[in-house]
Amino acid sequence: MSENYKFFQNKKCEYFPCHKIENEEEFNCLFCFCPLYMLKNKCGGNFKYTNGFKNCSDCILPHTKNSHNYIMSKMGIVSKIGSEQE
After folding, report:
1. What is the torsion angle, in degrees rounded to the nearest 10, for the CA atoms of residue 17, residue 68, residue 71 and residue 8?
2. In the chain, what are the domain boundaries?
3. How far apart are CA 61 and CA 30, in angstroms?
4. How much is the pTM?
5. Exposure string (b/e) for 32-50, b if CB count within 10 Å is 16 or more?
6. In terms of Cα–Cα distance, which of 31, 29, 19, 25 is closest to 58?
7. 63 SS3 class
8. Cβ count within 10 A of residue 79
9. pLDDT (tens digit per residue) in 44-78
10. What is the pLDDT of residue 86?
């Protein structure tokens, strides 16, 4: 079974690759904006806080070749947070 939907590259993007990675051929653009950003310190990525804002510039977690499975494993938590009423 093909799983091509789990990987995408946009080499024409003026920011490609937007993070430093050893092998550009494995850089995954599928999650250009990380859907786990809202999980704060529970996202599992390499981030820091800069002036009170989450800074993900050193994180390649959503950009690895196999990132799709990890991101999808966390989407239940994202969905729950997104559906909470204030």
Report:
1. 30
2. 31-86
3. 12
4. 0.82
5. eebebeebeeebebebeee
6. 19
7. helix
8. 9
9. 999 999 999 999 999 999 999 889 999 999 999 99
10. 62
